[in-house]
Amino acid sequence: MAASLVALDKIVSLAKRRGFVFQSSDIYGGLNGCWDYGPLGVELLRNVKEAWWREMTYRDDIEGIDASILMHPRVWEASGHIGSFADPMIDNKTSKKRYRADHLIEDEIDRLRNKEKEAEADALQERLDKAVAPEDFYQIIVDSGIKDPAGGTNDWTEVRQFNLMFKTFIGPVEDSSAVVYLRPETAQGIFVNFNNVNQSSRQKVPFGIAQIGKAFRNEINTKNFLFRTREFEQMEMQWFVKPGDDDKWYDYWLEKRQNWFQEFGISPDKLRVKPHAEDKLAHYAKAAVDIEYLFPFGWGEVEGIHNRTDFDLRQHAEFSGKKIEYFDQGENVRYTPYVIETSIGASRSTMMFLVNAYDEDEIGGEKRDVLRFHPKLAPYKVAIFPLIKKEGMPEFAQKLHQDVQKQYKSFYDESGAIGRRYRRQDEAGTPYCVTIDGQTLEDGTVTVRDRDTTEQIRIQAESLRGWLGERV
Ligand code: ATP
């Protein structure tokens, strides 16, 4: 069954039952927009981050950093976040519910399309694409007679801009001079470190700086599981180029990033590239596209590729009073590099890999849920079972498990019928199950069962680590 047809609820409940993802502060009823990764989820998340980190930094021309979450407040003035990192919000006076004005309009467009009113939907989309000021959104909502999805009335407040940055205070005094923000993106930690990295690593343009880290946004509405949360992780890379070379590198990274998704099992028909309309570009961008995945609820952005020009470095130079430039020794010229950014959510892409892996099929007339993760992303790489709990099989299996575990995350299980043990691993996405049986004790071979095909082969137990090495 295609993942796009599977209800998200099924995946969310499997995720909870098997220990991938729990609501934050579950026993207190949860905290909106925050999630915790359980024993399987944390492995999956780490593997996604590791796959990205290897792809991006295990090359000569990209350096990694890990900047702090709290930064000097001037950073966010320079970046434009204090002035314009805001979403349009609207309240319904009857239900007292708050919505993102643009999302209300998008939902209305979806409704029209579902009723096959394509012309009306197109007209509304065109108005939404042009909307910039709060009044624009308000007028569209009023003109289209959009009602509150919760209460059904249309007594709306004005639309106001709501800044998404979380504010807090540094030190013991809560006054305005102590205000700091939880970073809403990791990118600025890279820009403010441009001189430090450039000088210490002696890289030559073009080169990149990559970072994985937490980001926080006080989203007006959170929804769709890990898709839109208030605390999340980003994996961002800023690629510094000579002005004029930026278009070429933009194309390069767009292609390279799409390939990465496919390498880890995302099929091309579930991926699309959506350019931002020119008049909707962020204040810093010359060009931008979203790489979108077909989630159960529709298409959603997973990664953005942006040409940020020299906006950020220039702003930080101006606000800090420090020179931020690159000196090209060969050509004896000094310039402010342009930046191509690749920005992907670690949590959002983990959700994508989870959704993408989910499948239901039948084995010998019995239904099973299976997570078909790429072996490199799977939480456990292998599970090891003794066929029965006697005749030395558990001892053999334990020894093999301890040996394999030195290198690969392995799961030992001796309880229940072998079929049930397989099923449990299918649900966890473990690509290989190894069983120790009577023949093992005679000739040292074990069976290896493949999660996807359920086919079994026999290999020598002592070659298992090497065998796994070629696959995971
Ligand atoms: P959206 O339009 O969905 O709010 P955005 O265009 O503001 O997203 P960017 O600022 O480009 O997103 O962020 C880059 C990436 O960070 C996104 O592609 C997404 O994967 C991730 N991301 C952004 N906001 C969130 C969030 N609230 N929860 C989870 N991931 C997020």
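^ adenosine-5'-triphosphate complex. The pocket of adenosine-5'-triphosphate is lined by residues 185, 217, 219, 228-229, 232, 234, 301-304, 343-345, 347-348 (CB under 6 Å). The first helix runs from residue 8 to 17.
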